[in-house]
Amino acid sequence: MAGEPINVNEFEELARKVLPKIYYDFFSGGAEDQYTLKENIEAFRRIIIRPRILVDVSKIDMSTIILGHRTSAPIIVAPTSSHQLAHPEGEVATARGAAACNVIMGVAFTSTCTMEEVASSCKAVRFIQTFAFKREITANMVQRAERNGFRAIILTVDAPRLGRKEADIKNKMIAPPFKNFEGLISTEVVSDKGSNVEAYAAETLVPSFCWKDIAWLKSITKLPILIKGVLTGEDATKAIEAGVAGIIVSNHGARQLDYTPATISVLEEVVHAVQGKVPVLLDGGIRRGTDIFKALALGAKAVLIGRPVIYGLAAKGETGVKQVIEMLKNELEQTMALAGCCTVDDITRSHVNTETERFLCRM
Ligand SMILES: Cc1cc2nc3c(=O)[nH]c(=O)nc-3n(C[C@H](O)[C@H](O)[C@H](O)COP(=O)(O)O)c2cc1C
Ligand SMILES: CC(C)CC(=O)C(=O)O
Predict the structure, then answer these.
(1) Distance 188 CA to ligand 1 centre (A)
(2) Which of 40, 26, 171, 137 is CA-nearest to residue 85?
(3) Stretch among 54-63, 192-201, 248-257, 343-352 having the lowest mean pLDDT
């Protein structure tokens, strides 16, 4: 690649050049055969856009409202861990990039900067992400989130234990210190068996966490709870019954259970089950503005972006994060104009055609 990156894939190339292999593998990798990792991207390519012509597209407005917060575009920074392995300024730089673009910042509890450092560094609307942690860890997280102006809790439910990322095992990947755990986990988290991320998980995760525990989480916070990791209509229905404020269709960027479907291929199933009761968001494989357009057409309120933001951070720190988000916003704006949609509400189901629909048409 010569010159400045002009799309997200070129940012990935740049990140691959600047990062030590062990960290590039950690950020880019997926579980086991990485079937789902490829599918998350390939499934978008199989969806075709049906543009409308001769619409006045002289003004395009991508703004939207997510859980009451107006943002410049239907884009959220996905909560991802370990940003200081990409850049010394870590999540603080990422959050500043998100703030500059006026999009919501998802902060992982397994961040390398503390929640407090991120909160005091920028004005971005921030959501905190947590796992099915031991109750004392969750209670601590909730208090700190409320005190530090986080606006929602993202509860990630697809990780009762960690997925097997074989590159990390081979590379003996050592997790950086997750500073939010300071004072909360007693033992030094080390391992001589390769990756120490397993040891962290064993110290913190509760594999018996289930639906009733959402009622407990609701009882200790006034913040809205988004459930992240839903892949079926059945679980979407249960999540609504449990009283969540929103659903994130996600397979954890293909890092947990391999051979789960591409998220975009199950979005409609979830949207139908939810019946408009809460917003449905989606992440996994978003690399182009056209991908965002397709997700919105199939019923998502917004999308979360994981790896592209990390690649921007690795390549150019806060500036790189900003450039990646702006690139995706520009591409979405271009797609909306060329497809004849002036606002996000103008993007409808009839603006896309799935492979199944094309197959059925031929029968
Ligand atoms: C390096 C990395 C770390 C991640 N860490 C977390 C995490 O701590 N909590 C979480 O809920 N999801 C985590 N995820 C998953 C993301 O939130 C998101 O679901 C995924 O990255 C979306 O796919 P994409 O990377 O293709 O955009 C992580 C993903 C990556 C790539
Ligand atoms: C295991 C966590 C530390 C981060 C995570 O969720 C991931 O790497 O996918």
Answers:
(1) 25
(2) 26
(3) 192-201
Give the per-residue pLDDT at 31: 98
Pocket of ligand 1 contains residue 156 by CB under 6 Å: yes
CB distance 18 to 89 below 8 Å: no
Decide whether any atom of ligand 2 lies within 6 Å of the 251 Cβ.
no
Residue type for position 137: I
Strands (E), 14-162: 48-49, 64-66, 69-71, 75-77, 104-108, 126-130, 152-156
Mean pLDDT of 326-338: 99
Distance 315 CA to ligand 2 centre (A): 21
CATH number of 8-362: 3.20.20.70
Beta carbons of 333 and 281 less than 8 angstroms apart? no
Residue ranges per structural domain of the chain: 8-362
Calpha distance 256→334 (Å, rounded): 34
